[in-house]
Amino acid sequence: MDIFQSIILGIIQGITEFFPISSTAHLALIPWFFSWKDPGLSYNVALHFGSLFAILLYFRNTWKLVISQFMEGALKRNFNNLEYGRVGLFIIIATIPAVISGLLFEPYAAGILRHPLIIAGSLLMFGLLLLYSNKVSKENRSINEMTIKDGLIIGIAQAFAIIPGASRSGVTITGALLRNFKTDEAAKFSFLMAAPLIVGATVYESRHMSAESVIQTPFLVGILVSAVFAFLAIKYLLRFVRFRGYKHFVYYRIVLAIVITLIHFVV
Questions:
Q1: pLDDT tens digits, residue range 106-142?
Q2: Average pLDDT of 203-220?
């Protein structure tokens, strides 16, 4: 893989990780569209590390509160009056289903599930679910009002992110909207949830990566570019969905699913 391809994939990863349009799908589709060699799931996971930097930097003040209050609550074994500590607890709870799903279905995610038609179907199906949740949600709750039930439901939704095209942010936002969280609050919790999952996936996939491959210039360039565009994507999306919701992203998913299907059968 050359520098140009790494830059393109870094941009795609940075933007699509937080837009509910599936970064995994786009990272699989771009090489398919341009007849590039598929860099594989391990490279995709490495690019996600750039997104992790963006999450930690953009929400740095929130993370300080989450970590400090979580530690306080854990030591006291009581999270009453520790709103951000409870958020940290629910992030952990919501991560468990995704970890189980990843361990069970990772071989399929790296293989047959990356087929263009499966990606197209996932883009369409989970996109329509997002549109439905956006329409029926009362949007009257913040993440500081979250309960264990909310965390479990959103976590179960996140387990479907193993399917390319589902979109991790898309399915978690869908779950949060169905629990009546505000559009921007749903996105915020979805982004915070990504941090432990990215760390876990990176550590797990590192067994396939040699030290020499990680320090190669294309790898490092891709991670850096991903971090920059992920930061910008977070900033833009939180503002956008507060006023316009998620329907525009669903329309994009539908169009992309149709294009993928046509290319597969016609070209």
A1: 777 767 888 889 999 999 999 999 999 999 999 999 9
A2: 66
Residue-averaged pLDDT of the chain = 90
Cα angle for residues 160, 185, 86 (degrees, 5° grid): 85
* 79-98 per-position pLDDT tens digit: 988 999 999 999 999 999 99
Say which residues have a Cβ less than 8 Å from residue 186's Cβ, sequence separation at least 6: 172, 173, 176, 177
- Residues facing residue 165 across a β-bridge: none
* Cα dihedral 84/85/90/95 (nearest 10): 100
What one-character DSSP code corresponds to residue 2? -
HSE toward the beta carbon, residue 163, CA cutoff 13 A = 18
- Residues 1 and 31: their CA atoms lie apart, in Å, by 11
What letter does residue 37 receive in the DSSP assignment? Answer: P
- Per the listing, tokens 């009453």 go with 80
Q: Which of 246, 251, 93 is nearest to 158 (CA)?
A: 93
Measured in degrees and rounded to the nearest 5, phi and psi for residue 141 equal -125, 150
Residues 6+ apart with CB under 8 A from 21: 123, 167, 170, 249, 252, 253, 256
Rounded Cα–Cα distance for residues 267 and 263 (Å): 5
Question: How many whole angstroms separate alpha carbon 76 and alpha carbon 184?
Answer: 31
Distance CA 209, CA 189 (A): 30
Question: Which residue in 240, 153, 134, 167 sits closest to 21, CA to CA?
Answer: 167
Phi, psi (deg, nearest 5) at residue 225: -65, -40
Do 214 and 6 meet the contact criterion of CB atoms below 8 Å apart? no
Residue type present at position 122: S
**E strand spans, 69-225:** none
How many whole angstroms separate alpha carbon 258 and alpha carbon 50?
30
